[in-house]
User: Fold this.
Amino acid sequence: MKNLKLLYVIFVSLFLFTGISAQINKAKIRFEEEVYDFGVINIDAGYVFHEFSFVNIGDMPFIINDVKTSCGCTTPEWTKEPVIPGQSGSVTVRFNPKGRPGPFSKSITINSNAESQPVILKIKGTVSTDEGEVTTEQKIARIISEYKYEMGDLRLKYTHVAFNEIVKGTTESRTIKIANSSAEKSIKPALKNIPEFLTIGFKPEILEPAGEGIIEITYNSALKNEWDRTIDRLYLTVNDEIPNNNMLTVTATITEDFSGLTDDKKANAPRADFDSRTFNFGTIKQGKKIEHNFILKNTGKSDLIIRRIWATCGCTAVAPRKTVIEPDDNTQVKAVFNSAGRKGNQKKMITVITNDPVNPKILLWLEGIVEM
Assistant:
């Protein structure tokens, strides 16, 4: 009987520990809103867009695995890369009103590693078939309803442009719909300090009162001297003045195209092989620094190049001893975790990008517990 009781206690303890561990390793996110009302949309208005923004408020990187919608008329785009704690991402929804008169309500289901599963967002509104003359006041009312982001008289559908994956050397374009919410004056939007890898076009260059247009953004990845996840911030002006909240965010994930490699080139390619991908530092006191050297060996037949290496958190510094590793040679990748201001369970991600065609992106982890 005692043995049965002991087995029962062990079983319950393991069950509780597993449940607690699962909760610890779940990401936590907060959406600015979970329901968006487009108001009244004319059936011939064309696609309308809305960006649902979220912030990772947990201790784990947040990863969206899939996004599904309840209707083919609704198309989602989302942040594909892991969103590190404290950073933001988005799910942008495109709705086509054509052929769908009357009220509508569509759901967007997000499957991810979030603590609550699944996350469900909704868009709603009414599709109008009214073909009568629309007054300026009605146009502005619709603009204010549809264009969420306000920068003086300039309003935007969204302020985050996601290029998702873009192959190094290629060029892609995206657009942002914009509008003039003024009933009296024209406005001329512009962007300050545009980097060389971006080409910006405003169509039209001047927005008439209650007028609408687009910002076309073209991304030339050949001119961007970075790899993997990149974030750039642009700042709008309106009639040469700087409005409040005037920032645009442009993100992209720049990858290398290995699809054209021949069998011979693949056989002679470099190979990135770490001695381990996780280092558990156990339990430490807050304020202590932890150092660990991950060993990276090139087990391939040509030079291994570290394209980029970065950590998800400012509390973690990481640097390789060298960035070009010859065949059968190795290098140390030094990671330093500063626990100052941290407490509880910690799991910090380090991303290593190389020219290994089999494993071009490798994730390393520093994990443990910080006590006060």
Observations:
- The domain at 134-255 is CATH 2.60.40.10 (Immunoglobulin-like).
- The longest strand covers residues 102-112.
